[in-house]
Write a structure and sequence with these properties.
Order of helices and strands: HHHHHHEEEHEHEHEE
Shape: elongated
Structural class: alpha/beta
Number of domains: 3
Strand content: 5-15%
Radius of gyration: 39 Å
Distance between the termini: 106 Å
Helix content: 40-55%
CATH class of the largest domain: Alpha Beta
Number of helices: 9
CATH topology of the largest domain: Trna Endonuclease, Chain: A, domain 1
Strand order of the largest sheet: 1-2-3-4-5
Length: 277
């Protein structure tokens, strides 16, 4: 069975809590001050009566603000519950242990942490239908969640979702399940904008977003220390390379001619070789 039509406050509680609170503040200002200001510009006794009814509209304005504040509180609690629901999943058994409503919330939170805008439509239910609508980069994706562990999703479910894809003018379809899909379902989805997410794939996606949340932001790369150039260059005497002997090619050593009081290069194999430079 489906889940019925939702009201304004129910829809508001499904939005991010700052949005619900902002709606309450704007609504309060509109009821308390906007309505009298609008009718002050109109003619007629009824309009003048409403223009002077700012004080009498105050209780209604406060009631609207209080209702929106409660919706914001519910939205905050739901968001926290969804985060805890995803963070505590450790394996396929933990995916199968929750009920189908929490399974939908779990799948939606996994996509939400990947940067998608997630709408819980209320059009599906335990028996199927569109459970989530994903939006990202101008693309709209329909999602159906099947918390089937022992049964494989048959081809008729995939066909139905493909029909909803064309009916709603969406760009893609995704079907998530704890178990798997039949071969007919996989063959039908091949080559179409249909993604079949089995239990192993879903668990990998959940672990990826869990790991991404635990990974701290990378520290900024430190700037290299400034290089201080000396005020003047210090001349370093060049070290002469040891030459090779012109006769045998062996290394040479510096020697001193005591008679002429001069230096020269002599072969290290002297007296076997008398090569000099």
């Amino acid at each position: 069975m489906g889940r019925g039509r939702r009201g304004f406050l129910d829809d508001l509680s499904r939005l991010p809590w700052p949005v619900a609170l902002a709606v309450g503040v704007v609504g309060y200002a509109g009821i308390r001050h906007g309505v009298p200001a609008f009718f002050a510009r109109q003619d007629g006794p009824f309009a003048h009566a409403l223009a002077n009814a700012s004080a009498s509209l105050a209780p209604l304005a406060w009631m609207f603000l209080a209702a929106c504040a409660l919706c914001a509180l519910a939205a905050f609690a739901n968001a926290r519950k969804r985060r805890r629901l995803l963070d505590t999943r450790t394996g396929l058994d933990s995916l199968a242990a929750i009920d189908w409503r929490d399974f939908e919330r779990l799948v939606g939170e996994a996509f939400r942490r990947q940067g998608y805008s997630v709408e819980e439509t209320g059009l599906g239910g335990a028996d199927g239908g569109i459970d989530l609508i994903l939006r990202k980069h101008g693309q709209r994706t329909l999602v159906q969640c099947k918390q089937w562990r022992r049964e494989k999703v048959p081809v008729n479910v995939v066909r139905e979702m493909y029909g909803l894809l064309a009916h709603h003018g969406a760009h893609a379809v995704r079907i998530a399940t704890v178990g798997g899909f039949t071969q007919d379902a996989a063959r039908f989805a091949h080559g179409k904008p249909i993604e079949l997410i089995d239990g192993a794939t879903l668990l990998t996606m959940i672990r990826d977003v869990q790991r991404a949340d635990r990974t701290p932001a990378s520290a900024p790369t430190p700037m290299p220390a400034p290089r201080i150039e000396p005020a003047f260059a210090i001349a370093t005497p060049a070290v002469a390379a040891t030459p090779d002997c012109p006769r045998c090619g062996s290394a040479m050593v510096e020697r001193t001619n005591r008679r002429a009081n001069s230096t020269f290069w002599g072969c290290t194999t002297f007296p076997a070789c008398r090569g000099t430079r």
